[in-house]
């Protein structure tokens, strides 16, 4: 309903009542609005994204909902958590840091991305990320084109199986157009003098180890 109608030349401007924004009723599925989608907070299928305990993500939009243009995933990144150095052949990966801070390797560069940052990882380049010490890191992952959800659907079953089979996880990655590299090679330590606590994925044990950029290590 219009509160006031103003004549401006030959046009009419309708000033609407100011109303509070009301959330839709709670839904466990995206809401179809004239062919578009509205996804409420908390809606989406959760899955294990890495071999790290509690490394879960949530599908917000899958390819079958976006005309295969993109896949949108989000989740909390726990301290110490991060994938192997890897390379995508089929999709670009864009990261939006919602909160906290995340450390990245993109090609030969290592850097930290604070909240509000966007990192674009082009297909065909080695990349990785890790939460070094941020207790509230939360990230959205935008994959374009879609298809990465099929990889996660399959590999999440491997990540939740004990004992964890790293070779099987790597084979699934290869199946979906990804190359996985040695976990500790070029680990996220931009300065050899810095120390980083990293996780041994094979056994889920915390290790206090210094890793330099060339992959050598020394215990302390």
Automatic annotation (TrEMBL):
Q: List, alphabetically, the SUPFAM superfamilies matched.
A: RmlC-like cupins
Q: Which Pfam families does this chain map to?
A: Cupin_2 (PF07883)
Alphabetized, the UniProt keywords read: Signal
Occurrences of domain Cupin type-2 (ranges)? 80-134
Please name the source species.
Rotaria magnacalcarata
Instruction: Tell me the protein's name.
Output: Cupin type-2 domain-containing protein
Q: Which InterPro entries match?
A: Cupin_2, QDO-like, RmlC-like_jellyroll, RmlC_Cupin_sf
- Which residue positions does the secretion signal occupy? 1-21
